[in-house]
């Protein structure tokens, strides 16, 4: 059966309905409406009330954990024995850096080509840079309850051996389900979830950053500004060069600054805006899906004991992640994942006041570094419904124009002048965009080299045909 047809509900639409913004980068196995796995056994066997072992002797002792981060300071860190990435030749493709573009330039050179770029001069005048101090945020929102994530080692949502989890002894997946998981011995480690006042969180991340609190990392991630801090929206402005896309969510990302978001992709076009600290992003093109072993991976979650201050690996979940790679960039297992040796990363490092455009479905791993005087890392990101999209998990699926995105441009009359018309080809207004859309529909019926050459001759970016 074709996996793309077996998804049932469109995965991007499913994420936009709330799963993604809560950091649940996957689908519940017992939700048959969204069921990518073709089995009737999931509902009966995979249930969330997983037993827990409360034996403190099996705690995850944090002092025994190593924190080692590769891909920092634009180098691989090969001198670190924990960073044995020998297949790279020490050279990255570097992100292009440009000043704020016009809408037409951004569309033609980056959005339509699915090309990352660092943009300067776009957010320099945001009020947020001077206004969002710890004292201001604490006074304004200190009593706001927030839902934060925490890990023992600063790594968020990496892949680990399932045998490390205590509940693995009595959490059994039926054979009919297990056979459909490419890596049944692996799990994605979701961070522990904690609820606290925002003032408590601000104190916590400062203590972690200063070294007063050890063996813990805390992160306010995937958090909607509209839901938590609605008044802050007036301190940032929309970026006009991308306003042809529909905004899906506007989020705040605030941490102690020493965090590593493990290798994954997002089904949204993303503008990551750095306010405090730095982020070093390692990216891989979407055509590396098979080399990065895109698949379903069962999820798990840390638990945190507030009385002891210890994390535990106890909770296996009845859901899968669809967007995480099983490849560990720090310690790649090239025997198990040999195709990874054929990848070539791109490096994009953004400083305060810079914006990174990450096109939808680009794989990325994000190393954050704190502003040492503010003891934090702070960013906001705009997620847009993607211009180019595909089904997932589906390693062989190629990017294609999102018909909902393109058709909305027609109905909204985008392209009333040559400056804002992304299909600029000598026509104006809706007629011009209508011409472009008609051409797109024709090209979508054509496959192979002919379509690619037509795109090139007409000056349209058509990466969905190119690999």
TrEMBL record:
This is JmjC domain-containing protein. Residues 209-399 form the JmjC domain. It comes from Elysia crispata (lettuce slug). Pfam families: Cupin_8 (PF13621).
């Amino acid at each position: 059966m074709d996996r793309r047809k077996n998804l049932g509900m469109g995965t991007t639409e499913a994420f936009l309905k709330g799963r993604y913004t809560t950091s649940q980068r996957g689908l519940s196995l017992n939700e048959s409406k969204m069921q990518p796995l073709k089995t009737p056994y999931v509902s009966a066997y995979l249930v969330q009330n997983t037993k827990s072992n409360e034996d403190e002797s099996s705690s995850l002792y944090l002092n025994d954990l190593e924190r080692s981060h590769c891909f920092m300071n634009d180098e691989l860190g090969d001198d670190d024995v924990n960073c044995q990435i020998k297949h790279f030749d020490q050279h990255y493709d570097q992100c292009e850096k440009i000043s704020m573009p016009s809408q037409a330039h951004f569309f033609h050179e980056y959005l339509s080509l699915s090309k990352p770029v660092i943009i300067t001069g776009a957010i320099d005048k945001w009020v947020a840079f001077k206004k969002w101090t710890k004292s201001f945020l604490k006074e304004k929102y200190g009593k706001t309850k927030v839902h934060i994530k925490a890990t023992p080692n600063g790594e968020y949502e990496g892949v680990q051996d399932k045998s490390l989890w205590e509940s693995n002894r009595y959490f059994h997946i039926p054979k009919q389900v297990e056979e459909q998981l490419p890596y049944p011995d692996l799990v994605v480690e979701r961070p522990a979830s904690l609820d606290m006042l925002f003032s408590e969180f601000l104190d916590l991340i400062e203590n972690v950053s200063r070294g007063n609190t050890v063996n813990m990392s805390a992160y306010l991630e995937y958090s909607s500004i509209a839901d938590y801090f609605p008044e802050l929206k007036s301190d940032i402005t929309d970026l006009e060069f991308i306003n042809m896309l529909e905004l899906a969510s506007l989020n705040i990302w605030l941490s102690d600054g020493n965090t590593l978001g493990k290798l994954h992709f997002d089904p949204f076009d993303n503008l990551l805006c750095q306010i405090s600290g730095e982020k070093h992003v390692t990216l891989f093109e979407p055509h590396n899906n098979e080399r990065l072993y895109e698949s379903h991976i069962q999820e798990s979650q840390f638990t945190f004991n507030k009385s002891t201050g210890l994390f535990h690996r106890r909770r296996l979940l009845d859901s899968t992640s669809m967007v995480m790679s099983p490849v560990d960039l720090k310690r790649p297992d090239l025997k198990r994942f040999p195709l990874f040796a054929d990848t070539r990363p791109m490096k994009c490092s953004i400083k305060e006041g810079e914006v990174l455009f990450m096109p939808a479905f680009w794989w990325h791993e994000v190393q954050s570094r704190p502003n040492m005087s503010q003891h934090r890392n702070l960013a906001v990101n705009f997620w847009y419904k993607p211009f180019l999209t595909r089904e997932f998990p589906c390693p062989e699926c190629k990017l294609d124009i999102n018909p909902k995105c393109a058709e909305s441009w027609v109905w909204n009359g985008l392209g009333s002048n040559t400056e804002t018309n992304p299909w600029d080809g000598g026509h104006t207004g809706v007629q011009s965009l209508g011409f472009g859309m008609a051409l797109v529909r024709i090209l979508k019926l054509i496959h192979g080299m002919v379509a690619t050459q037509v795109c090139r001759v007409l000056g349209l970016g058509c990466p969905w045909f190119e690999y």
